[in-house]
Specification:
Elements lengths: L3 E5 L15 E3 L21 E2 L2 E2 H9 L4 E4 L23 E3 L5 E3 L5 H11 L2 E6 L6 H12 L5 H8 L10 E4 L12 H13 L11 E8 L3 H10 L7 E8 L16 H28 L6 E9 L18 H16 L4 E6 L10 E4 L2 E4 L1 H9 L6 E3 L1 E2 L4 E4 L2 E4 L1 E7 L5 E7 L6 E6 L5 E9 L18 E3 L3 E4 L2 E6 L3 E9 L1
Parallel strand pairs: 1-22, 2-5, 2-13, 5-8, 8-9, 9-10, 10-11, 11-12, 12-13
Antiparallel strand pairs: 1-17, 3-4, 6-7, 14-15, 16-20, 18-19, 20-21, 21-27, 22-26, 23-24, 23-27, 25-26
Helix pairs in contact: 3-4, 5-6, 6-7, 7-8, 8-9
The structure holds alpha-L-arabinofuranose.
């Protein structure tokens, strides 16, 4: 195969930053994400602060979780925040009707979540209950968290151990309001949104709220169009989009997380690549109403959704995570980076033990998934200056269908170092890249790689490091050119040291 000619362009005149919030995560009261995930049983022999697992915190701190979305998902529109504050023994037991009818003891509530965020160094991103809550309930939650006035609600917060306001700024107003959040029409939701947003108050001394509209289901332009048309720009900081990757594309039989063949690998990565066109479509609609790009698009649920692991509760959405997931993650993050003028937030679903998880636990044991390692590699892009990358991708062909084998994104950080993230989706063929970087002077290249013998390889509790990062030796400086041999089925991030 001919070498791929790749150019990393200088930053465009209208400089664009890759928001660190693209590197956000999601923790729903679902299956074993919170309970038996972040929040350990008191008797579990792991390092803990209260009941927060510190081995998980330590791992996540390393990849710089920009924000953490909570308490859902579908659960958010059934959640009543008062159930989760005050003395634990007095908190009611409720039923998680969305996820396996699990009994929710509410031991993990608002204060515990905000303590977790503080330990992680992550910004909290709360989802308010629009589906089964009230405007007053949401407004009270905001006052409880953000006001410094002397009121019964703030006194309650102080009694519950937090004297100072928390200043939580990121607020989703509902979740999937077209579905589990209330099955609303877009026109009805936009009226409801405006009502809620009107009472989402900024409190003196707390930073202004970022009010976020519950956005479209995948490829549904009508929802975005109606939101942008009906909601004044000043009333929304962001608008969301949910787009999952199903291996088969069929919700009834999504395909297994491991043990799949090349045909299912191919359809998974093909489906994941749809994210680019879907984001572009929603961004174009937003441009019509908001040409100055004031409103952020937040893809606040994305990731691979497979069948659950055999023998596990179908309502708990527990799935393994293979090199295939890592290739999807690297590709999707490249897509988000390259749309960073509009995509200014994203949340992988979900952080621990649910869907495309970063971390899996089994009692005291914990492992880092291949997807975790991609977030480790890509953290260099957080809040860095975006650099456009141009190339003609070779094709990866299977059964007469073709998709681009290569995807990439690049950025320059505050020290001047340039980072290029490259994904080769072809599981059978390495690629050679000849890269020019006009206007960028650099003296050395280093890198790290994630790959494995098979795209279905994964980390198990017996072999937790089967798929792990390694130093990458396949990039060389030839004069001003960077020559890279990118192995089959790999994610590589290169760092170019400035002169
Ligand atoms: O992430 C799992 C679920 O997927 C969320 O609760 C919901 O918002 C989406 O449908």
């Amino acid at each position: 195969q001919q070498p791929v000619q790749l150019t990393v362009q200088p930053a465009p005149a209208a400089k664009t930053t890759i928001s660190k919030h693209i590197y956000g995560h999601f923790a729903e009261h679902l299956g074993r994400c919170v309970y038996d995930g972040f929040w350990a049983d008191p008797g579990l022999n792991v390092p803990k602060q209260g009941r927060i697992r510190l081995d998980i915190v330590e791992a996540l701190r390393k990849i710089k979780v920009a924000n953490l979305r909570w308490p859902g998902g579908c659960f958010a529109d059934a959640y009543h925040w008062r159930d989760g504050v005050g003395p634990t023994a007095q908190r009611p037991r409720t039923i998680n009707t969305w996820w396996g009818d699990a009994v929710e003891d509410n031991s993990f509530g608002t204060h515990e979540f905000l303590e977790l965020c503080q330990l992680l160094g992550a910004e909290p991103y709360l989802a308010a209950n629009v589906g089964s809550g009230t405007v007053q309930e949401m407004a009270n939650w905001m006052e409880y968290l953000n006001s410094n006035a002397d009121t019964p609600l703030t006194q309650q917060r102080r009694q519950n151990g937090h004297a100072e306001p928390y200043g939580v700024t990121m607020w989703g107003i509902g979740n999937e309001s077209w579905g589990c959040g209330g099955n609303m029409t877009p026109a009805y939701y936009t009226d409801v949104y405006k009502r809620y947003a009107t009472f989402a108050h900024n409190y003196p001394g707390s930073p202004p709220l970022k009010r976020i509209v519950s956005g479209a289901n995948g490829d549904d332009p009508a929802w975005t169009e109606t939101c942008m048309k009906n909601i004044p720009l000043g009333m929304m900081w962001g608008l969301t989009l949910h787009q999952y990757t199903l291996p088969t594309g069929d919700w009834g039989k999504k395909g297994p997380a491991t043990g799949f063949g090349e045909a299912e690998y191919f359809s998974t990565v093909r489906n994941c690549l749809r994210m680019d066109a879907i984001v572009a479509k929603h961004a174009a609609i937003m441009d019509k109403y908001d040409p100055k790009k004031q409103v952020a698009l937040l893809v606040d649920e994305w990731g691979v959704w497979t069948d659950v692991e055999p023998g596990t509760n179908p309502g708990f959405l527990y799935q393994q995570n293979s090199l295939r997931d890592a290739l999807v993650a690297g590709t999707t993050l490249n897509i988000f980076n390259n749309h960073c003028d509009r995509v200014r937030g994203a949340n992988l679903a979900q952080a621990v033990n649910v869907l495309q998880a970063l971390i899996l636990t089994d009692k005291e044991k914990m492992l880092l998934t291949p997807t975790y390692h991609v977030f480790d590699l890509y953290q260099v892009h957080q809040d860095a200056e975006w650099l456009p990358v141009q190339f003609q991708s070779p094709e990866y062909e299977l059964g007469g269908e073709k998709i681009p084998a290569l995807n990439a994104s690049a950025s320059r950080d505050k020290s001047g170092a340039v980072h290029i993230s490259l994904v080769n989706l072809n599981p059978n063929q390495a690629l050679t890249l000849q890269t020019t970087l006009p206007g960028i002077s650099w003296k050395a290249v280093s890198g790290r790689i994630l790959t494995s013998a098979k795209v279905s390889d994964y980390n198990s509790f017996d072999k937790p490091n089967a798929v792990q990062l390694a130093d990458f030796k396949g990039a060389k400086k030839h004069g001003d050119q960077l020559v890279v041999t990118l192995p089959a089925k790999s994610v590589v991030v290169l760092e170019l040291t400035p002169t």
